[in-house]
Amino acid sequence: MKEIGHWINGKLVAGTSGRFADVFNPATGEVQARVALATKAELDAAVADAAEAQVKWGATNPQKRARVMMEFVRLINRDMDKLAEALSSEHGKTFPDAKGDVQRGLEVIEFCTGAPHLLKGEFTDSAGPGIDMYSLRQPLGVAAGITPFNFPAMIPLWKMGPALACGNAFILKPSERDPSVPLMLAALLQEAGLPDGVLQVINGDKESVDAIIDNDTIQAIGFVGSTPIAQYIYGRGCANGKRVQCFGGAKNHMIIMPDADLDQAADALIGAGYGAAGERCMAISVAVPVGKATADGLIERLVPRIEKLKVGPWTAGNDVDYGPLVTGAALERVKGLITSGVEQGATLVCDGRNFKLQGYETGFFVGPTLFDNVTRDMDIYKQEIFGPVLSTVRTDSYEEALAYAMDHEYGNGTAIFTRDGDTARDFANRVNIGMIGINVPIPVPLAYHTFGGWKKSGFGDLNQHGPDSFRFYTRTKTVTSRWPSGIKEGSAFNFRAME
Ligand code: NAD
Question: Where do the Aldehyde dehydrogenase domain residues begin and end (predicted)?
Fold first, then answer.
């Protein structure tokens, strides 16, 4: 059995804990490897080495750090197919989707090549007689990232890129479900010129996460995953005096107005609801048509499109629409939620529970599932399902549809489909959600904007990537300096002397 360890001080090393987690091939259900789960002692030792390596890296000028990022971009592009294959084989997502996962992470590394510009401070000349004032952005020291299974390339890259470009050392604790790609990325960073020890990839579970939260050397933690864990890490991390940002779960609503192009809306819902088997924090999981004719027209258009969806393993080629769920436990949970929807009175229009694929009977597949007449009190509405399940909530007015999106505890993303600019503008202004799409179903901001949800989808003050990430991974220091001689007679800066 293949054993996956850690990346410590520039080398792959085996774990010492004797504890492991299974890594599955989700298409067959077989265990394909086991990943070591680090102890607190392993984590603490890696952090101590990282702190030592950070001293020199933090003092390296930003342009040199940016050049490492430039080379990293080139190497990721060189190895794109290899990375995507490893990603698909552990996560289960289709090959084009896996490449998209790497690509959206790569774009943040491209953003990080602008580190010299992004780290420029502020300067006030002559704040008083002979007094200048300037603000610096300095690295924090050692920062850590804890990431989820659903984007095993993108989210580690969103975390490590800005942290390293700002001059920090970084401890990455990736998901134990699909640990190979983060280790491959660490090796590429070494090839790009990152000094050993500056990035440590420690695989593990709650024990290593708790060790991160309680380690006094770690100054900041960036987390992405489910809301209960986000809240836990945010609470305990802040109590330990760390800078913490935690991004949690989602339940993204798409409002379809009576004037929307229903074919366009149905196409958008198929991609946003079922793509990546619904295992995206920006997936649309609730369709909110306004008016009976809109709802009937939408369901009429969704059903034939759902029937055409091709579900299969990533190895079956590029025309597969989505693959299996990540684990058997995820499969059972999603099927259980579908059953609860039926029991609680929703209309099950398409049922994916009994989906079977010849040759892959033991894989973690769920067929595309569609519910109509879903109401607020149902578990399929309240909970994040994280599977290929779309719920339809029927409403009579725009205000009622808006209230659904606003009242839900999650606030990651939302979308409105309409031809009316006034409605779209009102929606974007009023809705209490972080990322908004107008006739765009998955409004993921590009690398130079920031990404983050509101309400129970995001905890902390600053978002991921974009300028916020450079603020998160640096500390501001403001220097006031006074040179008693002030402005000398005849100096080029003595404007009075020039008059
Ligand atoms: P998860 O919360 O189970 O795991 C995330 C990380 O936390 C992993 O590294 C895991 O090892 C660790 N972890 C798990 N249980 C823990 C515990 N009890 N104590 C300490 N650490 C623990 O999430 P997941 O299933 O890997 O990912 C899916 C979730 O992530 C979904 O809820 C999804 O919406 C969310 N997500 C959010 C965003 C966003 O930007 N808001 C992006 C991607 C995914």
Answer: 15-479
